[in-house]
Amino acid sequence: MVQTTNGDGIRTLTLDRPDQRNALTSAALRDLEAAVESATEPVLYLHGAGEAFCAGADLDEVKALDAESAEAFAALGQRVAHALESYDGAVVAGIDGAARGGGVELALACDIRVATPDATLAETGVKLGLFGAWGGTARLPDIVGTGDALDIALSGRTLDAETALQMGLVSRVTAEPRAVAEEIAAVDADALRVLKARMRDDADRETQERREQQAFADLNAKTE
């Protein structure tokens, strides 16, 4: 369900279930988690096979969950999202076609979200009596602000690529999202990893600045 290829500093993670719009079962989530955790490349590129990025969680599996297994399923999705977010290289989501529910949540965990002009994004769980539970309720407000996050989540409305760009939900709209991953893979890998760590640092400002100074000095020593 998750195909992995490596080359030119990029590990490509392909959600490969196109007949189901790449809906994610627990087995697929475990495959994705393993593919991220075993990666060493400077850049991860996450995308979907076929005409969709990811339809989210597999609803047939979700409908069969009891309370205990539903909590475990949510925890698994959160682990995968955290693995993407905490990866020490850059993580790029290439969103082509539909991203729904958990698909949006996985994209939110990536560093950079790049959409094609045909991409659409929606948190549709509320229409099904559910909501995204893979960390999206925390990440979405951080990325687009509380007001827009509530609008997106409570309405379940579908955003086209340009609207998502205006909100800051995606950072670029281009016909070739993978080109962004290639652009990033061409930079210095050590600087890339250090810069991501610094920008993801949630310590107090004084601590961040001290760490920034040390990181700059360490990188500079490598270039001497």
UniProtKB/TrEMBL annotation:
This is Enoyl-CoA hydratase. GO terms for molecular function: enoyl-CoA hydratase activity; isomerase activity. Signal peptide: none annotated. Belongs to the enoyl-CoA hydratase/isomerase family. Residues 201-224 are annotated as: Disordered. Keywords: Isomerase, Lyase. SUPFAM superfamilies: ClpP/crotonase. Residues 201-213 have a biased composition (Basic and acidic residues). PROSITE patterns: ENOYL_COA_HYDRATASE. It comes from the Archaea. Its EC number is 4.2.1.17. InterPro entries: ClpP/crotonase-like_dom_sf, Enoyl-CoA_hyd/isom_CS, Enoyl-CoA_hydra/iso. The keyword Lyase applies.
